Fold this sequence. Notes:
Shape: globular
Amino acid sequence: MDPPSSESDTPMTRLWRGAVFSLVGTLAPRDAAAAPTEPNSLANPLVETVACENCHLFVNAVVQVADPPYSPFRTAQGTMMANSARDPVFWAGVAVADADAPGQTELCIRCHAPRAFLDGHGDVTSIDELTDEERSGVECEVCHRAMEDLDTPAGNAQYQIDDVVVGTNVPRRGPFDFTDGVDPPPHSWIHDPYTGSSRLCGTCHDVSTPAERVDDAGVGLGVAFNEQRTYSEWLGSAFAEAGAGFRSCQDCHMPAVEDMPACTEHVNLQSHPTGGRRHDLVGANRFMIGILKAEYGSAGSNRVADVFYDVTEARYDEFLATSATLEVATPTEVDLTEGLESITVRVTNNTGHKLPTGYSEGRVMWIEVLAEYAGQRIYSSGAWDQAAGFETDAQLHTYEAIGDDWSDGTQFHLLRNNHWVIDSRIPPLGLRPNIETDPVGDRYTLQPDETWPNFDETSYTFAAAPNVADVTPDDPDEDRLVVTVRLRYLINTPEYISFLAGAGGDAGQHVAELFEVAGGAVPETLAEHVVEIPIVGFGAVAGTDSGSSGASSGSSGVDDTGSASGTDSGAPSGSSTTVTATGEGTTALDTSGSAGAETEGGGGCGCRTRGSSVVPLVFLPLLLRRRRRD
């Protein structure tokens, strides 16, 4: 029996709870019978998420009222986890997969719509076939009734759901220990470390398809096609090693909150010494949060409160700024009659998995380089235009994983994929060699300690721009080339959405319409910095026609695919000044890696944030907010 559907907390309510529910106490987690839960096998179905709202939608305690919201319900309901069964791109992908392999999409449903699978509806291929309750995605009880099953490898949504009643209901599992003398929760509970483990996340974040993976010659490798290996990437990295550097999935995606209360009963009374975590659960798919809000918020079907999407969206800027570090080395001056040589960019992956990770189709990260003088673009590589996409120039440097059907090269058909064309995504720190997680291609080389580098370095060279005129001939201090370098990530490329529109049936058409109304997916900026390089030579005089010579087709240190080796463990080379951009500010370095001295005028370079005056050798990165819809 569930508590009354009410947010009120009266003495009568508390008395009712105490009469109906019992407290388990401190119990060790029960041993799991090694078998994932099968459809229609739960004697005690999942309690609907709305029931959790009664006690877990509390506002912050008075002493923390100014802090970001941290109640589990408030922070979770606007996430992609809670909306995994509403994601329109997912359903378009399911339609493609079902056309390619009819009857083989149950795994998709296991992950994205657990309630539907457990209710015996694992064969659905359209959101219209789900009940309202089944559209709740990864619900509270999917995680808080999950039991560790060491006999079943993590992955492919092989979850085991606790179904044993203790007292009057099935206990909820989690990190809290209700032995502090404050009123017990209105349900049984078990203190279970598994709930806070990375292995729990690995249940759905390692995925294999039925196809055998083949190498570049089409020879079988004896393993299933590794569609995604986010958990295995973490498990093979330095982040999974015990010690000061250990970081679980939850440490990044569910930030710890000191003295966090567990439920309404404990707000302003007593917090649990075990603390708690915000259920932020954000990644890099901010754009889809806006799409979901338009469809299911107050402007759409009004099934999900706008505030939940707003709370989730607010977490993105802070989170994305932690994902990567940019180090950029540039010349101390530039003569536009000779060109701009050796802009060297190093990207370091700060995450515990590949950057980017997860499902790869239609997703790409890249480096954008823009050089401007007096508001005129002189050089560019990977320039983004919301209407046209990114510039596919000869020096474009991307990070992506592209799978295909080796027999004919067909791409974007997940269940036909059996071969990785390339996987140039940046490995996490300390990733050890493993066929399941190795990069594919020749971009990365193992380091002396037999781990993959968690960084990548590439250089850019641009040809002479002889037609650019000095617009301030009487003031040489204004002659500066403003170079902006960004690390950008796009969750759904226009090519992928166009493919879904043609191959995904009604669901694909729906996605295309949603994206058209929204103006297309907007890329995230993971890191950015701006550096100003003094210009010491122009090819034209004031008053003459001037124009950009465009980006050079040549490159320095870059092969003809735009890739560069990232095996050097030192600072970027070939330039006089290096600037490091992180989420916590930047510091200029000389080529030896030591702190550099400030330089002014024509003798050095300066960095600045957008819209500010020049601040020599200091950069505070700015993240671009996505364009909001009215």
